[in-house]
Automatic annotation (TrEMBL):
Descriptive protein name: Unannotated protein
Source organism (scientific name): freshwater metagenome
Amino acid sequence: MKTRTLLLLSVGCGLLILLAGGIKLFQVANDRADVPVLGLGDEARVGDMSVVVNAIRADPSGVEVDIEMAGVAGATVLDGWSMLGDGELSEPSAAVAEGACDGSTVVPADGSAVRCTLRFPVVEAEQYVAYQRGGELRRWAP
């Protein structure tokens, strides 16, 4: 084959790859992976964990979220939680307070649910609380 033929074939292959990438990008852009918003008290299975958000309360010191979790024994309760408020994601506080989940709170080994309160920073408007585990995400709104 001549050099000119090889160059034309390589340019043609490049254009086909570019076209295929553009088509795939268009397909992905139109995919909607909506995560349903659950109500307070609704139980959800997230990965290998069973989770319930019972209440979301805002006060001058922050936002308190009452939760119940059961599933993987020894899993740290704070891992995977976040709150969207005022357009920003925030993580729960690991500070020790009575009734609050802190950095040492884990899911019990006997299969029972742990009940505690997550504490988030002060926000003017909380949109939702989310829990993510095992590649799955669930959201609860007040």
